Amino acid sequence: xxxxxxxxxxxxxxxxxxxxxxxxxxxxxxxxxxxxxxxxxxxxxxxxxxxxxxxxxxxxxxxxxxxxxxxxxxxxxxxxxxxxxxxxxxxxxxx
Length: 95
Hints:
95 residues, alpha+beta, 3-stranded antiparallel sheet
């Protein structure tokens, strides 16, 4: 009889633990992924070009002038930099 009592207590404690964990860690509140490709997180757009080659040329020009830059994967191609680098990137791209 004591074996059933102990087993019942173990299952009750495990059930209670499962409920507590479900309550505190079970809600998935992560943001919805960007499926349309328009959210670039911390990056700011400094140029939009129609071709991949043009985007690569601008990115290389920015990098040669000390500005960290990247481009989007799909047309129209967006050249992006960190917000602190936007003024420098705009100066480089104007020259």
